[in-house]
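Worked example 3. Consider a protein that binds farnesyl diphosphate.
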Amino acid sequence: MKQIPRHIAIIMDGNGRWARERGQPRAEGHRRGAETIENIVSACRDRNVRHLTLYAFSEENWRRPSEEVLALMQLLRHFLSSKRAELIEKKTAFRAIGDLERLPADVRQELWETCEATKGGDRMTLIVALSYGGRQEICRAVNSLAGRGVKEVTPEIIETALDTSGIPDPDLLIRTSGEYRLSNFLLWQLAYAELYFTETHWPDFTAEELDRAIESFSRRQRRFGLTDDQLK
Ligand code: FPP
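Given these inputs, the predicted complex is written out as structure tokens:
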């Protein structure tokens, strides 16, 4: 029996390299990357993955050339407006995490409308990390707790103030394009996740490769600090 991760997180890397290898502009890599998102969201839904978190734009990505930032924002706006009806129909709740205040007002509006319209979705949650940094998220959480007068924190208290509050931690992290780093993604939440790395660039990532990652996850024994005997 294959064990299906309840929550998969993905660092979608390699859009730029995919485009360069084909002599195409980086924006084309991102456009193809957005198509992969559509395929993988529906593949996860079909496999009963309950939560999928995608790293779409990091805090550091603001430093990219302004044309590229603009192209990514346009893609995101287009994705949200064109996919909203399908998300509703497929009972997929949408959530955004990160420092959303930094996003352009029109993108924030689309995000808000998509979150509101899909709220009732109980089949899957699609979480998109935008203007996101793991350390920054932890700082925002701790500052908000301090602002509420909390004097001493525990992991459980910090969790209530994270952007991901209410969502179980990822069981499996996938990173594409041959890099072996976390790049400030979900630092708190990935504490016990299994990690899967592939050389495939994100635009070439397929449902078959998702299955290979899930199979690899299934074969691993998660011990959470216990011994083999304690797990028997
Ligand atoms: C990494 O490739 C990818 C990104 C920084 C952006 C991911 C965005 C999308 C897939 C599309 C837009 C998002 C949505 C939600 C519609 P890279 O540019 O870092 O690749 P490189 O390392 O090869 O240069």
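Take a moment to read the result before moving on. The domain at 7-220 is CATH 3.40.1180.10 (Undecaprenyl pyrophosphate synthetase). Residues 12-17, 30, 33-34, 37, 56, 61, 72, 75-76, 79, 128, 177, 202 surround farnesyl diphosphate (CB under 6 Å).
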